[in-house]
Write a structure and sequence with these properties.
It is built from 21 helices and no strands. By secondary structure, the protein is mainly α. Helix 2 (about 35-55) packs across helix 6, helix 7 (about 115-145) packs across helix 8 and helix 14 packs parallel to helix 15. It is globular, with a radius of gyration of 22 Å.
């Protein structure tokens, strides 16, 4: 029996996705234990699958340049300049597979109309099914553990920020796919009420960034054209009511332990003066014993230049890959042992690139997103502006907020949706997915 290449690639992709996206929830809820190392190993299978498929479909020169640049820069920074083992480099480079190997896979399907139609239909269904599954998973987690970090959906515990992020993006993508420009804003929302209902689980955990996401969601559903400002006068009151309702639900679920007054929000983002003094003293005086288990995101960004200054040349080389990979059967790097307090708790995607590969790594990170979003003029006619703004702003947010590219089920969906932002006019017609009473609609115009 002969299996077509594109169907085999799709089958491997989907199988890897669903294993990585559902087994952690099942394992953790059956045993009521975290199983962090086991989940990490499971996600390694997803990373390897993406890498194999990416190499199998690799054709475009730009993708070859991205892969070669990342491997060369990271190898030099890790093995040559920081004298870390090749094994540690191989272990650490896995965290960048979602960046360098997803684009070749997506280009492979896009270059042929038949393959494109097949894959897009599969991805539309995958995104919808994943979105639906999060509802019961997160309700169960909230009932069992309270409205905190364990409420992360089917990808398992301690990823609430990642779970909330992908829920908003998935719902927004499907809303754009189903949006009818011949109907008004309220009529479109009414036709797609299921997609709005599926946002509710994001308020069953303590992810504060959901307030930003929900504002962007309803704001950027407004078509970006000459009437954009005029339409906002009608839409803003609707958004205000939604935010009030969301705030009430958040307060009900999370309670008074996570208030959002301005001074507390500042502490949440930047830390307080006492913590700042402690970590500055630790960096400047080479103090290893630091008792705080987690530090604010802004504080970690603030400290990075000070840490660079302690090590000549680190501005250009960073400290090498694998900094957060030690401890599970592998020896930690000397930097990880010295600055364990910087690497535990909250990790941010762009911060990690800067830490591991220095300023060049941070610049490479930005260049990657410019390439992925195709931010140059000739793609204007094929671009969906609403999608581009939604996903562009979200990328900027998670770059300094969470590390979602640690999780294959996230980037396997996210990179597909980013890819189509600038290729929207080339998407095949949306196929109705009969699920949860979702109303079948006929588009008179879809753009």
């Amino acid at each position: 029996m002969r299996i077509e290449k594109h169907k085999l690639i799709t089958g491997i992709f989907l199988f890897s996705f669903w294993i990585c996206a559902t087994v952690p929830f099942i394992l953790q809820e059956v045993t009521r234990e975290y199983h962090g190392p086991e989940v990490a190993k499971l996600w390694t299978l997803g990373e390897v699958a993406v890498a194999i498929l990416g190499l199998w479909t690799l054709k475009a020169r730009v993708d070859k340049v991205i892969i070669l640049t990342l491997f060369t820069l990271s190898f030099l920074d890790t093995v040559i300049f920081n004298h870390i083992s090749v094994l540690m480099w191989l272990n650490g480079v896995r965290l960048y597979f979602g960046f360098i190997f997803m684009l070749p896979i997506l280009r492979y399907f896009w270059e042929n109309e038949g393959r494109r139609r097949y894959f897009v239909a599969k991805m539309d269904r995958l995104i919808y099914l994943y979105l639906v599954i999060q509802f019961p998973c997160m309700v169960i987690q909230c009932v069992r553990y309270g409205a905190y970090d364990n409420v992360s959906g089917s990808i398992g515990w301690m990823a609430s920020g990642v779970a909330s992020t992908i829920i908003y993006l998935s719902s927004f993508y499907l809303m754009m796919r189903r949006w009818n420009r011949d109907l008004n804003y309220i009529e479109n929302l009414r036709n797609n009420w299921v997609l709005i209902m599926l946002l509710i689980p994001t308020w069953l955990n303590e992810t504060k960034v959901s307030f930003i996401y929900i504002t962007l969601y309803f704001l950027l559903l407004v078509p970006i054209d000459r009437k954009f400002i005029k339409r906002l006068t009608i839409v803003l009151p609707v958004i205000a009511l939604i935010l009030i309702g969301a705030a009430m639900l958040y307060k009900t679920m999370v309670g008074d332990q996570n208030q959002t007054e301005s001074y507390e929000l500042a502490d949440y983002l930047m830390g307080n003066d006492i913590l700042l003094d402690v970590v500055e003293y630790a960096v400047e005086n080479d103090v290893v014993e630091v008792n705080e288990s987690d530090y604010a995101r802004g504080l970690k960004f603030y400290l990075l230049p000070k840490i660079y200054d302690q090590y000549p040349g680190s501005w250009l080389t960073g400290f090498g890959l694998g900094q957060i990979k030690g401890g599970n059967g592998m020896e930690q790097t000397e930097f990880a042992k010295r600055y364990f307090w910087l690497l535990q708790g909250t990790i941010m995607q762009w911060h990690l690139a800067l830490l591991e590969m220095g300023i060049p790594g941070g610049i490479l990170y930005i260049i990657f997103w410019v390439t992925a979003f195709r931010l140059w003029g000739k793609h204007k006619k094929s671009r969906n502006l609403n999608m581009s703004w939604m996903f562009g702003i979200t990328t900027a947010i998670f770059s300094i907020y969470i590390p979602p590219f640690f999780i294959p089920p996230f980037y396997m969906q996210f990179m597909f949706m980013v890819f189509v932002c600038s290729r929207w006019s080339g998407l095949p017609p949306y196929r109705h997915i009969p699920l949860l009473g979702s109303k079948k609609i006929i588009f008179s115009r879809h753009d």
